[in-house]
Amino acid sequence: MTVDRPSHLAGALRRRRYPLSAWPWRALSYAVTTVPVAGVLAVAAGVLAGPLLLVVGALRRDRPVDVAALTVLAAVTVTGLGVAPLVSAPVAAFERWRLGLVDDRPVVGPRWRGPAARFTGGAAWREVAYVAWLGTVVPLAYGTYALLVLLDLALVAGPWLAGGQERIVLVRVTIDSPTEAVPWAVAGVLAAPALLYLAGLLVAGQAAVARWLLDAAPDGAALREVTRSRARLVGAYEAERRRIERDVHDGAQPRLTALTLQLGLARLDVPEDSPAAGPLAVAHEQAKELMVTLRGIVQGIRPPQLTELGLAGAVGELAARSVVPVAVRADLARPVPEPVETTAWYVVSEALGNVVRHAGATRAEVRLTRGDRGLVVEVEDDGRGGADPDRGTGLTGLADRVAAADGRLLLASPTGGPTLVRVELPCRP
Fold this sequence. Notes:
The chain has helices at about 10, 25-60, 65-100, 120-155, 160, 180-215, 220-270, 275-300, 305-320, 340-360, 395-405; strands at about 170, 175, 325-330, 365-370, 375-380, 410, 420-425. It has eleven helices and seven strands. It folds into three domains: about 10-215, no CATH class; about 220-300; about 305-425, Histidine kinase-like ATPase, C-terminal domain (Heat Shock Protein 90). A hairpin with a 6-residue loop joins strand 6 (about 410) and strand 7. By secondary structure, it is α+β, with helices and mostly antiparallel strands. About 65% of the residues lie in helices and about 10% in strands.
């Protein structure tokens, strides 16, 4: 039996056995190693912020700002901006390594392209932002949590601290005796698990910010260019597909049909006992087989059912030919572009083929819905379930075909069934 283990602290916090697992200790180790790093960065931030605080203080007291203070402030600002992209690199590398204490997922850093590139790359300035956040926000958060822990410890130790000359003051409540401190001590004990989870949330939040800022992701412009190039490739493929289909259908197929007829007529004119009768018959049969093969190739480029019947009719024909009873429900109030129709047809064809070969189902249903955002294709069966793309290339190839059309494939197939294949295809006008 495979045990589903969380791969990061945020996922572990949702589990009931979190306090009894190793994750609290991993969170503690991450927090403990954060303290020296954040402490050093906090001191550096304080040094850099000193001149700014002097200038702000002078302005608030309506005093003239010294030119020397402004000069120092400008020099510190320029120096900080000039050094920050370079200093942040080793800190960010260490933080990516340290993130493994609470997150098993890999984090990829940017490639080193030289000091000059550090000032123009978006990843470098995200590292600077993380270092600034680590030196300012994180110390404040950890300090607040430390105060809460000290308060809880004071509550728990209240019965031993109160009494005699010692009194405990909690906001507006004053505890004068150990008896009065007992209820507060019980509350402190009960609050300990909440503090444990709060520490986990604090560390998980810090780790989430670290992953968000330090994980080198492709730039938005690069992603947009990849999307555009894929759209251009799909468009070029569709145009080339139509050209091949037209050339084969209008050129090679009629000529092969004429050749088959000529061979048939020649067989009628040649006596059966002639030496040429045998080879001629073989050539005629091969020509007919080639016609069938070529017809299959043409149909594989774009099924003729789509041209003749439309998507709903072509899917209905697939359902009629299926060994497993298939119900088709189509809601196609708006037209579907031809490339999307072809992709959807292949999705249904492959999915129904999997139902027949692997599912052991008694019935299946195909649903076609044309919405505002695109076409949704759903194929559901009542089979044994357990479909896994890793055990075969059918679903993987199907996902690749859908991705080429800028769509996505979703699979739900628990053991025991049912299995649902949902494909969402965008329809561009």
